[in-house]
Amino acid sequence: MNDHQDDQIGLAADDTIENMYLTFMVEKETYAVNIACVTEIVGIQRISEIPDVPDYIKGAMNLRGKVIPVMDQRLRFHLPARNYDDRTTIIVLDLEGVPTGLVVDQVTDVLTIPPAKIDPPPHWLHDGKRGVIKGLGKLDDNVSIILDVPHLLYDKNVEMDLSKVMAQV
């Protein structure tokens, strides 16, 4: 077997669902979630507000007869709010059995990021963000912030398990 064939076998081994990530933009940063958690991607929908939840829980949407809670990632990451536009997207994820919509500025790509190209979260990162960041994926000159999907539902700042809030919607 020659080197080229070895490279092709290595690429095929890395091209599994565990190594595939949906990337999206929030502000000017590229984030990623494992594609196995993604159930669908939809354009911005009408969102009904829910009282007494953190501000980043925008409310709930009706998606083909199913009520799905919606979380705005800008607000979750303490970034300024912005008006939704035609690029604003809702990524519907399965978060611990609870379908949940994440509002993001724009979905960008599906990438294969092998484990060898993922660094752990930086030690200097604020504790509130470190919990939701699984690692930093490096491909060429680009870095994608890989989110730890289950931790998106726990807000350390308000000591609230959002999976319980989301399950009640």
What does this molecule look like?
The protein is an alpha+beta fold and 169 residues long. It has a single domain (3-168), classed as CheA-289, Domain 4 (OB fold (Dihydrolipoamide Acetyltransferase, E2P)), CATH 2.40.50.180. The chain is built from four helices and 13 strands. It has helices at residues 3-14, 73-76, 127-130, 162-168; strands spanning 20-26, 29-34, 38-43, 57-63, 66-72, 89-95, 98-104, 106-112, 118-119, 133-139, 142-147, 154-155, 160-161. The strands form three sheets. The chain has a six-stranded mixed β-sheet, with no helix packed on it. It is globular and about 40 Å long. The model is unreliable at 1-11 (pLDDT under 50).
Features:
169 residues, alpha+beta, OB fold (Dihydrolipoamide Acetyltransferase, E2P), 6-stranded mixed β-sheet, 16% helix, globular, disordered N terminus
